[in-house]
């Protein structure tokens, strides 16, 4: 009591409990737990029931002499000095004095929810000289009219750029130029694509379209480039492109090319224009290289975690239809849905999508103080990556999603059975790819920068409390060019091991977090394990 070594743990954190007991701390338990302890400490005239026997056996394994339970009983009228819980709302605020340490801050939803992160990063260019489009796939809140219209503009412009890429891809696959495509001597016909209007072409699947589609895409992209050249700090998609063409018809034609195998007729002159325009767009649009050609977007509930409710879509009407249903439900619950550009051109391992779970700790907000964990882990999907099949098993790497799927027979056998890799295994793989420097020179520095920018964008909204701290888990995808893309930041990242790798790493990060928040403030020369101080304001 005099040393202020009374702690409370709420949630599934046996490692924290064990580590603190090993440091000589005594656990404080809620009053409901006191009654259970009293029953255990007093002799009972009859044996406990079956369930209680199992619980008692588990308790005996952790506390064979009952000493920890006895100490907890003796400090029941005190208040804990250190609180580790899975969410702040679970803590009785009467327990929070000025000198008490708790592992959460208030109002962190400004960057730990998809909705909050989307809104906060929109304001980043006003706070820092940083562009969120360089590390965070653009996203929109579909519950507001302005955001929904901005998304529609973005979807259309992305479709136009994607069509130029498809045209160049086709030009590279077959001989093009001013000559007519093979089969065109049969005379023009009407080729009906699914959900599309009749288009002049030769009959049969995979038949060519007239060049008007590429010319329209070029016109749209030229106008967009002109707007980008005069754009101010508000990097919103411009609205003038809404009236350029008949967008409903254009998108139907684009779907036929992108998803149904219709072909494009591309002259040499058009091919040169496409190449030149895409190169100029690349200089203005940091996300052009990750967009791909199929215009895939991902729809997410704004305040959920563990992959709940997430779907992928490739058609504008499909996204808006899903959003209408979702938004009506969310409005009643006070939540929003976000739609985010899917990273189509991503790095895969053995043909399988993965993401990176990266931990960091904030020990202060004034001044902002951030510690980055040097060890992290990768999470694999259970089926090979494909943009032509948008099922969750191929696209959502969350362990909570993938645990429901068996590994598919066509999965590469080199993918680990537990679908987890350590960052050291990943670095060894990068060496095999000839990218030995990518981890330390590209991925890690850019992950650090993305995390810091996200925190700075939300700093003024967080409920600051001196003496508190919080451990977060950031999720990243990696592009083909090894550029990491921040997807989300999680408060209370899971510490439940799903593999041998996470069993070791989760135990280590909890041990090192305690070193950081209990030892470092009194002894700055102490070991902080794998934590590295990356920022102090």
UniProtKB/TrEMBL annotation:
Catalytic activity: L-glutamyl-[protein] + glycine + ATP = glycyl-L-glutamyl-[protein] + ADP + phosphate + H(+)
Region Disordered: start-end pairs: 41-64
Any Gene Ontology CC annotation: microtubule cytoskeleton
Pfam annotation, one family: TTL
Acidic residues composition-biased segments: 51-64
Record-linked PROSITE patterns: TTL (PS51221)
Claim: Metal-binding is one of the keywords in the record: no
Coiled coil: none
Keyword line: ATP-binding, Cell projection, Cilium, Cytoplasm, Cytoskeleton, Flagellum, Ligase, Nucleotide-binding
Location(s), subcellular: Cytoplasm, Cytoskeleton, Flagellum axoneme
Keyword ATP-binding belongs to the record: yes
Molecular function per GO: ATP binding; protein-glycine ligase activity, initiating
Biological process, per Gene Ontology: cilium assembly; cilium movement
Protein name: TTLL3 monoglycylase
Organism: Sclerurus mexicanus
């Amino acid at each position: 009591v005099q040393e202020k070594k009374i702690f409370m743990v709420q949630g599934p954190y046996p490692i924290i409990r064990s580590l603190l007991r090993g440091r000589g701390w005594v656990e404080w338990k809620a009053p409901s737990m006191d009654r259970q302890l009293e029953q255990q400490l007093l002799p009972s005239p009859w044996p406990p029931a079956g369930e209680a026997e199992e619980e008692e056996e588990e308790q005996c394994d952790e506390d064979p002499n009952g000493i920890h339970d006895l100490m907890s009983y003796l400090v029941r009228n005190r208040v804990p000095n250190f609180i580790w819980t899975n969410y702040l709302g679970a803590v009785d605020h009467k327990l929070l004095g000025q000198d008490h340490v708790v592992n959460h801050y208030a109002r962190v939803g400004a960057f730990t929810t998809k909705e909050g992160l989307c809104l906060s990063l929109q304001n980043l260019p006003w706070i820092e000289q940083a562009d969120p489009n360089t590390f965070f796939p653009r996203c929109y809140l579909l519950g507001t009219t302005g955001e929904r219209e901005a998304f529609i503009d973005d979807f259309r412009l992305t479709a136009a750029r994607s069509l130029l890429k498809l045209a160049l891809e086709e030009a590279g696959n077959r001989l093009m130029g001013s000559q007519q495509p093979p089969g065109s001597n049969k005379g023009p016909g009407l080729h009906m694509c699914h959900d599309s209007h009749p288009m002049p072409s030769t009959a049969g699947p995979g038949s060519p379209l007239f060049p008007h589609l590429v010319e329209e895409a070029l016109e749209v992209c030229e106008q967009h480039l002109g707007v980008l050249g005069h754009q101010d700090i508000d990097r919103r998609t411009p609205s003038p492109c809404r009236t350029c063409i008949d967008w409903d018809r254009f998108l139907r034609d684009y779907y036929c090319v992108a998803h149904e195998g219709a072909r494009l007729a591309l002259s040499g002159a058009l091919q040169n224009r496409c190449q030149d325009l895409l190169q100029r767009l690349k200089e203005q649009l940091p996300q052009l290289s990750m967009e791909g050609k199929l215009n895939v977007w991902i729809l997410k509930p704004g305040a959920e975690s563990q992959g709940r409710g997430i779907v992928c879509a490739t058609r504008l009407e499909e996204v808006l239809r899903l959003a209408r249903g979702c938004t009506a439900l969310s409005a009643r619950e006070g939540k929003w849905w976000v739609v985010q550009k899917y990273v189509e051109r991503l790095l895969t391992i053995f043909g399988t999508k993965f993401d990176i779970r990266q931990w960091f700790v904030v020990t202060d907000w004034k001044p902002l103080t951030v510690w980055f964990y040097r060890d992290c882990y990768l999470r694999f999907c259970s089926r090979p990556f494909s943009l032509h099949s948008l099922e969750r098993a191929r696209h959502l790497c969350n362990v909570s999603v993938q645990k429901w799927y068996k590994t598919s027979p066509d999965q590469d056998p080199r993918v680990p059975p537990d679908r987890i890799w350590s960052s050291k295994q990943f670095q060894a793989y990068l060496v095999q790819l000839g990218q030995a420097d990518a981890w330390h020179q590209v991925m890690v520095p850019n992950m650090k920068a993305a995390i810091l920018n996200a925190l700075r964008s939300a700093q003024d909204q967080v409920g600051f409390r001196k003496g508190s701290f919080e451990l977060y888990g950031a999720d990243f995808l990696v592009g083909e060019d090894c550029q990491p893309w921040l997807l989300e930041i999680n408060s209370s990242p899971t510490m439940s091991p799903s593999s041998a790798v996470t069993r070791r790493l989760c135990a280590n990060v909890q041990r090192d977090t305690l070193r950081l928040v209990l030892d470092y403030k009194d002894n700055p020369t102490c070991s902080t394990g794998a934590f590295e101080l990356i920022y102090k304001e």
